[in-house]
């Protein structure tokens, strides 16, 4: 399949560039949705969706990941999902496994009396 399908705001770079693509485009879009869950919506609401897609496709632009909002493990996962090389993005099976590990580590910290808890995880 090539180009022209989907919503520009969530479009993987290879789709916008009208290149052939596979399932990893859904991984890219998933990561944008996770980002919005943490942010409470898109961080670039004022920008035109097509302009956002163009910057992601040709300038490798990605949303910022504030150290105060995102746990390091989530930041690493999102960066993997947004990798410019589609073959380097994790599969959903790998994402689920990583999210389960992240959730377990947060639970262990919470059980140990740590201050780390995340209502999303």
Description:
The protein has 121 residues and is mainly alpha-helical. The chain has helices at 13-16, 24-39, 49-58, 72-81, 92-111. Helices cover 50% and strands 0% of the residues. The mean pLDDT is 88. It comes from Salix dunnii. Residues 1-106 form the Protein kinase domain.
How are the SSEs placed, and which strands pair?
Layout: H1 13-16, H2 24-39, H3 49-58, H4 72-81, H5 92-111
Helix pairs in contact: 2-4
- What is the H level of CATH, i.e. the homologous superfamily? Transferase(Phosphotransferase) domain 1
How many helices does DSSP assign?
5
Would you report the number of β strands? 0
The biggest beta sheet is recorded as:
none
What is the helix content? 40-55%
Quaternary structure classification: single chain
Output the helix-strand order: HHHHH
Please give a quick description of this structure.
It comes from Salix dunnii. The chain is mainly α.
Q: Which tags fit this structure?
A:
121 residues; ATP binding; Transferase(Phosphotransferase), domain 1; 50% helix; single chain; protein serine/threonine kinase activity; Prot_kinase_dom; 5 helices
